[in-house]
Amino acid sequence: MPHPQITDPTPNHVRAVFAATTAFFELPRVSTFGQLAERLCSLGDRHEGPLTSIDLVAASAIDGTYAEAALIRQLAALEDETSAPA
């Protein structure tokens, strides 16, 4: 399915919760999970304690419900990959 042209400048909103602090930031709408990971790693260098949770409100050009469901599936898959025994 082709992606619709993204013209709305609405950004993605992220809340990263660390053991002692919380960081809020925005990412451009067309950001990738790799870019999100880079930003979280950068924040982790400046905040005390481990990253305990991430809340992401993704901007969507299609339908918010569809985008949220897809994001939840992708984040769950990432969590499964990172929590699997090495």
The stretches of 5 or more residues where confidence is low (pLDDT under 50) are 1-7
| Spatial extent as radius of gyration | 14 Å
Quaternary organization: single chain
Mean pLDDT: 76
The helix content is: 25-40%
Number of strands: 3
Distance between the termini: 35 Å
User: How does the helix and strand content classify structurally?
Assistant: alpha+beta
Order of helices and strands: EEHEH
Describe this structure as you would to a colleague.
There is one protein chain. The protein is of the alpha+beta class and 86 residues long. Helix content is 40%, strand content 23%. The chain is built from two helices and three strands; from the N terminus they run E-E-H-E-H. The protein has helices spanning 33-46, 64-83; strands at 12-18, 22-27, 51-57. The protein starts with 11 loop residues before the first strand and ends with a helix.
Features:
single chain, 86 residues, alpha+beta, 3-stranded antiparallel sheet, 2 helices, 3 strands, 40% helix
